[in-house]
Amino acid sequence: MTGAAVPGGGVDPEAVRPGSGGPVLVAFAGLPGVGKTTLAARVGVALRAPVLPVDPVERALHRYGLTGDVPGMAAYGAVAGLAEVQLGLGLSVVVDAVNPVASARGLWHDVAERAGVPLRVIEVHCGDEAEHRRRVDARPPEDGTWELTLRRRAEYEPLIGPRLVVDTAVAADPLPGILAYLS
Question: Three-class SS string for the chain?
Answer without folding.
Answer: CEEEEECCCEEEEEEEECCCCCCCEEEEECCCCCCHHHHHHHHHHHHCCCEEEHHHHHHHHHHCCCCCCCCCHHHHHHHHHHHHHHHHCCCCEEEECCCCCHHHHHHHHHHHHHHCCCEEEEEEECCCHHHHHHHHHHCCHHHCCHHHHHHHHHHCCCCCCCCEEEECCCCCCCHHHHHHHHC
